[in-house]
Specification:
Blueprint: H1 6-14, E1 19-23, E2 27-39, E3 42-49, E4 55-60, E5 67-72, E6 80-90
Antiparallel strand pairs: 1-2, 1-6, 2-3, 3-4, 4-5, 5-6
Length: about 90
């Protein structure tokens, strides 16, 4: 069986606690996942970033090499791809 994506596994293990995520060069901050699940090796999660009204969705790519991020701002129809999770760290309680 293929291994779980290491970034997705870290996000899953920190959930439901807050975590610091970096998504490309544009987005970094404290995120809280409202849901996080693995379906065999496929990861899916949804959450919010502190101080941001948008909802973020996270999913592993088909080849399981990365966790991609989509964002839906209030009033928007659909999702905008915003990048890949570069790093995930626990935040101090």
């Amino acid at each position: 069986m293929p291994e779980l994506n290491r970034v997705a596994k870290r996000m899953y293990n920190i959930h439901p606690n807050a975590m610091h995520l970096s998504v490309g060069e544009e987005i970094a901050g404290t995120f809280t996942l409202e849901s996080a699940e693995f379906f065999q090796t496929d990861f899916q999660a949804e959450g919010r970033r502190d101080g941001d009204e948008a909802v973020y969705r996270f999913a592993t790519t088909e080849d399981n090499d990365a966790v991609v991020v989509g964002r839906q701002r209030p009033g928007e129809e659909g999702w905008t791809m915003v990048g890949e999770v570069d790093s995930v760290e626990r935040t101090d309680a």
